[in-house]
Amino acid sequence: MVSRLLHNREAVQATLDQQNNHRLVMLTEAEWGKLQKLELLLEPCRYVTELLGGEAYVSCSVVLPAFRHLDRIMDITDDDPAYVVKFKNAFQKDLAARQANANKTWLEVATALDPRFKDLKCLPKQKREQVWTSLEDMLHTAESRRATTLQPYTEDDEPAQKKRRSALLLGSDSDSEDGMEFGELQRYRAEPSISMEDCPLQWWYVHSGAYEKLSVLARKYLASPATSIPCERLFSLAGHIVQKKRAALLPENVTKLVCLSDWLKK
């Protein structure tokens, strides 16, 4: 809105001059200068909003880096005039309230499992190791659940006997799969970060053989959208398809039409 007003400044001025209405007062030069400064501050917000609302790429792991980027943008400097300081303070207060309501644990794990942001520079240094510890606990918990689902031993069930032996090994202090999980996590941390243009899901697909258990967690966490905007788009699309005159469409036909509409765009 601000950008459009600045772009059409001369046209707006000419239109108001023709109105011959003294109650319509144009902005002063000082106010135009404030709008130009605010446009620069709001541009990163527009970009982040569009980025987190995308649906053709991974967005969940981008939330914390985006928040950190906005925090840096809104840092108050000595050169900021009073109205900019007021704006930045209000923005930081609102952003902090939204961060407090976010599922930080989920976002931190998603960021760590994204090969683009796994250095976790968007988090404080003391917080980074806690995230990796949480990931290690998740691997141990997943393996423990898998071990508890093993069938008990019976004399006429040889496969169950092998599973039982595996469960005994998992519970021992020897070189078990717990060590393999730990090594898997350490090897992933040692991997170089990928480019921002690369797809993290494609990276995990290629490396799923080397990181069998981590890749399962990556699919779970990275598949979550950052916002509900993609879901809202889907509801809007379905609303355009199932109209008043098409209310008798079968559910399976609605699904086909929604999918075809999405595929045609791509």
Q: Helices and strands, in N-to-C order?
A: HHHHHHHHHHHHH
Main sheet summary = none
- Total count of helical runs of at least 4 residues: 13
- What's the total count of β strands? 0
Parts with pLDDT < 50 across at least 5 consecutive residues: 160-178
Cα shape:
flat
Domains, number: 3
List keywords for this structure.
flat; mainly alpha; 13 helices; 3 domains; 67% helix; 266 residues
Question: Could you characterize what this model shows?
Answer:
There is one protein chain. The chain is an all-alpha fold and 266 residues long. The chain folds into 3 domains: 2-102, no CATH class; 110-222, no CATH class; 229-265, no CATH class. Helix content is 67%, strand content 0%. The longest helix is centred in the first third of the chain and has 24 residues, at 29-52. Mean pLDDT is 84; it is low at 160-178.
